[in-house]
Specification:
It holds the Pfam family NfeD. By secondary structure, the protein is of the alpha+beta class. It has three helices and five strands, in the order αααβββββ. The chain folds into two domains: 71 residues, no CATH class; 59 residues, OB fold (Dihydrolipoamide Acetyltransferase, E2P).
Amino acid sequence: MNDIDAWVWWLVGAAALGIPLVVTAMPEFGMLAVGAVAAAVAAGLGFGTVVQVLAFLAVSVALIAVVRPIAARHSRQSPRLATGIDALKGRQALVLERVDGTGGRIKLAGETWSARALDPGRSYEPGTEVDVVEIEGATAIVM
């Protein structure tokens, strides 16, 4: 054990921190692993244990303080491009067959969809333009 240089131990620590990074997908483990690599570089350059620990702490804390808030801000943003059924919400459709609280047909995005009125007491006649407010399975909820 005493024959192994300190930089090797730091790299082993970095690899060990990479395991929970992959398993839990918590980026903080990756930032600590980068700090361990910085400490390995300090050890490889011949600095003492105090400088190695300070390099580990400084790099790890700096990464967590800078990168984590940026990553959190990006994870809270909604996708800029709506796809799938989310892209259909809010679009206008043309009533093909009378739509009421029990059903009907509309033309939405060039396709024929089954539809149901949001307000069960309301009905829409063929030729009327309606707004899609929700998609439930293969049925568009319109108003």
